Amino acid sequence: MLKKTDSTRPDRIVEAPLPAIPEVDASNSGLASVQLSQHRTKLSTHRTGLSEHRTDLSEYRTDLSMHRTDLSSERSEMSMRRTGMSFQRTRMSADRTLMSVIRTSLSLISFGFTIFQVFQKLRDQTVITSAAAPRNFGITLVLLGIAMLVIGIIYHLQFMYGLRQERKAMVAEGLLHGQSRFPPSMTLIVALVLLLIGIAAIVSMVFQTGPFG
Asked: What domain range is 137 assigned to?
């Protein structure tokens, strides 16, 4: 946190009138020279006072300029940190988007597999004679869930790759800090596991084999 500058504005000086030009006796050159010399000394003293006041004002302006520079550096630092946090928020937003895809795909896969199994069991127990239509409908739902999950994973990977490249470029240019790193996405891991389960389910439904056959 920056400290407030301790410099104070110099007091306004009282404008003193210029020393009056002395009346010299031209007939007495020695006395006239002394009077004019004293007048020049008074003028020099007057200029020196003004010069010292200008120096004080210049030092005050320099202190203000340095303080503004410090404030600008602090604002730049805060802007860099806000930009870094915005990258983290964008990453978490991408994870939430993938979670929505996972929920929808899970609903389609589980609903389609349930329909398939229910009508398959009814046909095996000769309660119904044919289960082709619900069987095809269940397989279609599972395939739709798998396709949606694959598209969601590909989009997530492309988006995160672009986000990481943009972040690396900004870190290299010194526009933000790079201490915080992007951890592995647990949401992506869950999506990949669900994709394997969906593939195993569709294989079991089509070929009547596998862990869900």
From this structure: 83-207
Does the model's pTM come out above 0.70?
Answer: no
The answer to the question of residue 72 being in a domain is no
Is residue 20 assigned to a domain?
no
DSSP 126-179: TSSS--HHHHHHHHHHHHHHHHHHHHHHHHHHHHHHHHHHHHHHHHHTTSS---
Supply 71's token pair.
Answer: 């404030």
Length of the chain: 213
Specify if 26 maps to a domain: no
> Are 145 and 106 contacting, i.e. CB atoms less than 8 angstroms apart?
yes
pLDDT digit string, tens, across residues 59-86: 767 777 776 776 666 666 666 666 667 7
In sequence order, what are the residues at sequence separation of 6 or more whose Cβ sits closer than 8 angstroms to the Cβ of residue 116? Answer: 134, 135, 138, 139, 142, 205
The answer to whether the beta carbons of residues 134 and 116 sit under 8 Å apart is yes
